[in-house]
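All the exercises in this workshop are built on plain-text protein records. A learned vocabulary of local backbone shapes supplies the integers on the structure line. Once this layout is familiar, the rest of the handout is easier to follow. An example says more than a description, so a record of this kind follows:
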Amino acid sequence: MEAVYTSGIWMAESLQQKTRSHESFWLVVTHMGDPKAAFLLVFPFTYFLSRRAGVAVLWVAAISEWLNLVFKWLLFGERPFWWIGESHLFVDRQPIVDQFSSTCETGPGSPSGHAMVTGAVWWVVVSSLGSFLYSRTHSLVLSAAPYLLYVLLLVAVGISRVFILAHFPHQVIAGSITGFILGIVLSRRVPEGRPLLFFFCFSIGLLIGALMLHAGLQQLGFDLSWSIALAKKWCSHAEWIRLDTAPFSSLTRDCGALLGLGLAQYWRPGGWSLPWAPRALSVAISSMGLYHVNRLPLPVRPQGLFYGLFFVKFVMVPQIVMVWVPGLVHLFTHKKKED
């Protein structure tokens, strides 16, 4: 693997040097590909266009990110920003590369979570959009346009991850392919209308399953905190190391979102029926609400408290999008029509 990693470092150096003027663009793209964006941005916009597609986005995002965590624990992938120093292969010539605020993620690197979750979630979006366009226009060319944008998005997210030294090229390729396959498979079975018990058991099952895998690997002698230590050692700015990028943060996010999805469907089976104008208003209010929820500061010590509150935060996400905001919009618009 040394040859693969080394070529990846030189590729990242060349990419930074040749596209330095587009740095802000790559940083925006990498934020768009963040798994968190699937829950906070893609989900609300998709939900108010198509309820089933929105539920599918949340479902696919949670399962694909959970699987990405499992793969990372099993594959032990390096990350470029720490491998440069740890490999001791660049004594004669050090690569001229920079780190960024999004570089220093603390989990293992293979496969890329950004690429994997983006590939899975956006497949749900583009396949729904492509089917809608074909049903309205019967044009193969027009209905194929979303799939072209899908490929371009995956390529852009992959390049952005290599650019900021978060991943090697082979890791984003593996993540993109895996995400594409998961998007196809998971979107065929969307748990719409399932009872609350299903989501409760599924959420707890994913949580316990991940913890048992973690404990089992630890018992076998594998140190699963190795990547956290390397990230802290080689990150150029200590403040760029954030607890919300740790593996257990993604685990609690996924389990919280699935439980929240079950609660939202329990409180309001079938959702709220809104015309297009109230839907647009709901998108705007939901986006603002999720923005502020995401910015809520959480105590990082003790870590158990942080993960517990992080779990609750993402239980709230489906409630805001599927129950509270559309319910309030329906209440006020309905009253206005009556008046």
